[in-house]
Design brief:
This protein is an alpha+beta fold. The chain is about 30% helix and about 20% strand. It has three helices and three strands, in the order βαββαα. A hairpin with a 3-residue loop joins β2 and β3. It holds the Pfam family Glyco_transf_5. Keywords: Glycosyltransferase, Starch biosynthesis, Transferase. This is Truncated starch synthase IIa.
């Protein structure tokens, strides 16, 4: 999920973590993307299909 960047302080994480959450959407502007931050910070990721694995490896999908 994603939400407004100005709600990031509610996570109570240090400010420097915000860069892991930032997502720029050309239509909707800047957001905090919690799912993407989790993927970026994970040591390993389990995916449910070869297609999803491929998608995560693309610039657009992951």
């Amino acid at each position: 999920g994603r939400g407004p960047v100005d709600e990031f302080p509610f996570t109570e994480l240090p400010e420097h973590y915000l860069e892991h959450f930032r997502l720029y959407d050309p239509v909707g502007g800047e957001h905090a993307n919690y799912f993407a931050a989790g993927l970026k910070m994970a040591d390993q990721v389990v995916v449910v299909s070869p297609g999803y694995l491929w998608e995560l490896k693309t610039v657009e999908g992951g």
